[in-house]
Design a protein that fits this description.
The protein has 470 residues and is mainly α. The chain has two domains: 23-285 and 319-413, no CATH class; 427-468, no CATH class. The protein contains 19 helices and two strands. It has a two-stranded antiparallel sheet. Helix 6 packs parallel to helix 17. It is elongated. The relative contact order is 0.13. Residues 310-321 have low confidence and may be disordered.
């Protein structure tokens, strides 16, 4: 009876695990989309419009009757394919509904990116929880709530972070699919950081991962296009921020390490993410040492001669392999954190001015590194002899639950925040006030979309569109 009851429990647990694994992209999509829409306090997200969304992207869609005219038009020195496509879709709705159309379009794109990330991390780690945590982080980090999420202009940052995580997850065993390739191409054709993608793909080629060359080709194509456009298109002059290494390090320490993905809340502190990553990688190093020692002892044991014959290596011991779970935890951590630091540095050098969105990619990659490495370091654990080995086994198995508790509590406590659009303007109210001008013979109406009047961010809506929408 006891064995039957245990079998039923195990069967139920297995069925639940399979269900959660299948639902991973759905959970990530819903969480990311909801966070995109509902984190903003003050004036709701669906009643505001981001600066360039109005003047650059939807403005172009309104001004040109042909959608193709805007899709590949460079802005600030590179192509923004996804924001341009999203603006074309948003421009199809009545002008009164433009803010909500932009917000919903951004939420869908963000949710899809989160879903693709969640699948990649789930496949690489074997953990649905790690997949949901990494995927939803694209919308839950503090920088996303402050200014990156919920608009078209900053979608390239979200797509870039998602594409980086997918490529690094392929190092750990995720088999690249069409959704991954589509994400990489769309991300690459929307950001100036496209050359990062094929560079990361080459590491997968070195690791002999299946379909890694496809990542290099997809990312390389997008990078080539962006480089050509960048060399032949004008850019907005950079700011005058003095590129002082000390200031750059201080800003990164404050915005990514100290406050991190949780912003300015004190509990849990943002630096706990990096601390968790350090602890997890220390566990991974100890695991590698203990496993190699156990292998060496097994090889030297005369009672088990077959073990020495099965293990490769000139000396009869198993060489260190980057494909083992603890070694892979270290590799993906280095890849994610290093890439996050690189994107921050390049953005600061190119723009010569600091902006919180420059730390967004690093924040997402830190969260993904925590979730993915925690799942990898606890995978494949046996029951090793020795007190230290047993403690390490328990620490490795608790790594993912602890990481999940940290990220969930931090994301929950920092969910609502005052964003750069919280104080408006309320574009819906502005539209209602300006709409009667179209009945008085005006050709268009102009709405302010930024609270900072010195920047002159506005949207011009043709009265033909206003009248046609009634």
């Amino acid at each position: 009876m006891e064995s039957t009851r245990r079998a039923r429990i195990n069967a139920s647990a297995g069925a639940m695990a399979r269900l959660l694994a299948a639902a991973t992209p759905i959970l990530a999509f819903l969480l990311a989309a909801a966070a995109t829409l509902f984190r903003q306090t003050g004036i709701p997200k669906v009643r505001t419009i981001w600066a360039e969304d109005a003047t650059v992207f939807v403005g172009c869609a309104y001004a040109h009757p042909s959608p193709v005219a805007c899709l590949f038009e460079p802005y600030n020195g590179w192509i923004h394919l996804v924001p341009r496509l999203a603006a074309q879709l948003a421009a199809l709705v009545p002008p009164a509904d433009l803010p909500i159309a932009i917000a919903l379009t951004s939420a869908v794109v963000t949710g899809l990116a989160a879903a693709v990330v969640s699948i990649a991390v789930r496949n690489a780690s074997g953990s649905w929880a790690a997949g949901v945590l990494a995927g939803s982080s694209v919308a839950f980090v503090w920088q996303a709530g402050l200014e990156v999420g919920g608009n078209l202009t900053n979608l390239p940052w979200i797509l870039l972070a998602a594409a980086i995580v997918v490529i690094v997850a392929s190092w750990a065993g995720h088999r690249v699919g069409l959704a991954d390739l589509a994400l990489i191409v769309m991300a690459g054709l929307s950001t100036a950081f496209a050359p990062v993608l094929p560079a990361l793909g080459l590491i997968g080629v070195a690791l002999r991962r299946p379909r890694a060359p496809l990542l290099v080709v997809a990312g390389g194509f997008a990078a080539f296009v962006q480089v050509v456009v960048g060399l032949t298109s004008p850019r907005t002059p950079p700011g005058q921020f003095p590129i002082d290494p000390g200031d750059a390090v201080g800003l990164f320490t404050d915005q990514v390490i100290d406050h991190g993905a949780f912003g300015f809340i004190r509990t849990p502190p943002g630096w706990a993410i990096l601390a968790g990553i350090v602890v997890i990688n220390a566990i991974a190093v100890i695991r590698i040492v203990l496993e190699r020692r156990a292998d060496a002892e097994a090889e030297a044991d005369a009672i088990r001669p077959r073990a020495a014959e099965e293990e490769p290596g000139a000396s009869g011991t198993r060489p260190a392999r980057v494909t083992s779970d603890p070694a892979m935890a270290i590799l993906v951590t280095l890849g994610l954190i290093g890439t996050g630091l690189a994107t921050y540095t390049v953005a600061l050098v190119l723009q010569r001015v600091f902006n919180p969105r420059y730390t967004y990619v690093a924040a997402v990659l830190f969260c993904s590194a925590l979730a993915l490495s925690a799942a990898l370091v606890g995978r494949g654990m046996t029951d090793p002899p020795g007190t230290i080995a047993r403690w390490i086994r328990w620490a490795a198995r608790l790594a993912l639950p602890a990481a999940a508790l940290l990220l969930v509590s931090g994301f929950a406590r920092s969910f609502l925040l005052e964003t750069r659009a919280s104080n408006g303007p309320d574009v819906v109210a502005e539209y209602r006030a300006a709409e009667p001008a179209c009945d008085g013979g005006a050709a268009s109406i102009r709405l302010d979309v930024s609270p900072y009047s010195q920047f002159h961010w506005t949207i011009v809506i043709p009265c033909d569109r206003v009248r046609a929408s009634r």
